């Protein structure tokens, strides 16, 4: 069995650690902050999970991720995936809606069509405008992101993994006998294999080995207070949703956090992950308020909660899962590009296979490093 370091205890790292520890390896997870901290990308109550993509490649891949989420829920003994259904909409003739329908049909994912009148009957707090229509995917919903990370770490520990928190890795040094991790404390740790799942810090950590063209961006979201009973925004009457024309999206009220979460999947300002502007500004809130006024009747402009988070964008928005060039003992997963949480369990599974030179049963050339560094 191998000594393996998993660098980063976010969505990907926690999942990779669980698989590797379950397979009997001697796993150490090294994390610069505390578990489930809010300075990376995986903290919070909710991330949308859906098979609805404009690109059937991701729809098919989600088909592989769903059973792994089910398995994680079973092993953790807690509900992590709220199956609320999802409404994905835009102007009826929008090319993305046509692509979505094609991807869902090609992959045998059931869906229903909703026009504004049907939407008003079923989801009175979500208004489609005249000329808009939507696709309702029953199997969509949201993942309790922080709880997923914690569950993975707990299960990894139960399988023997060690978790070293408040431990900053400053560099990796491949040597003939293994890989040395240089810690900021001055200590060195030796491993046979390393999985790098450092989210927004990945490019900086690996720039000695490979020029990763990732851009880290500042993203924001708000929870708004309902003017009506919060139950009217509850999951029985209000699904997760994405407006594919404008890239606004949101979640039902779930009782675990105040208000109703609304966000904008518009790539924010580039930032250094260690110098992020964490303060919220009116300019962060205003686009969300304007959107709510149009599409979410009954939601007030009053903010109940707000947060800054980070995306790590790759140039083509595809992920990277690969070995470092010329160094098969180091596996890298990164560039999750603002849509990766739903895949973290699968990416952790794949990283664990790749770290141990096992065959991945799907064609994933699209996630190669070479496509970005050629
Ligand atoms: C506002 C927002 C909304 C999103 N919505 C969705 C959504 O609805 N659906 C969806 O699927 N995805 C969504 N995403 C994307 C998704 O959350 C991220 O892609 C995913 O969480 C990235 O996980 P990660 O493990 O790569 O990174 P992280 O969670 O950031 O983990 C990286 C970890 O590595 C640690 N680390 C880094 N460098 C070092 C070092 N040198 N030494 C020690 N530790 C280190 C960090 O501290 C961190 O804990 C959203 C993201 C944001 C920000």
Can you walk through the features of this model?
This protein has 374 residues and is an alpha+beta fold. The protein has two domains: 3-43 and 146-213 and 316-373, FAD/NAD(P)-binding domain; 86-140 and 215-310, D-Amino Acid Oxidase, Chain A, domain 2 (2-Layer Sandwich). It has helices at 11-22, 56-76, 95-106, 116-122, 145-158, 202-206, 282-295, 344-355, 370-373, and strands at residues 3-7, 26-30, 47-49, 81-82, 86-91, 112-114, 132-137, 141-143, 162-164, 169-175, 178-183, 188-191, 193-196, 215-226, 240-243, 248-250, 260-264, 299-313, 320-324, 327-334. It has an eight-stranded mixed beta sheet. It has a six-stranded mixed beta sheet with strand order 9-2-1-13-20-19, covered by helices on one side. A three-stranded antiparallel beta sheet has the order 3-8-4. A hairpin with a 2-residue loop joins strand 10 (169-175) and strand 11 (178-183). The longest helix is centred in the first third of the chain and has 21 residues, at 56-76. It starts with a strand and ends with a helix. The mean pLDDT is 97. It binds flavin-adenine dinucleotide. Residues 7-13, 30-33, 40-42, 47-48, 168-169, 197-201, 205, 219, 221, 263, 309-311, 336, 338-342, 344 line the site of flavin-adenine dinucleotide.
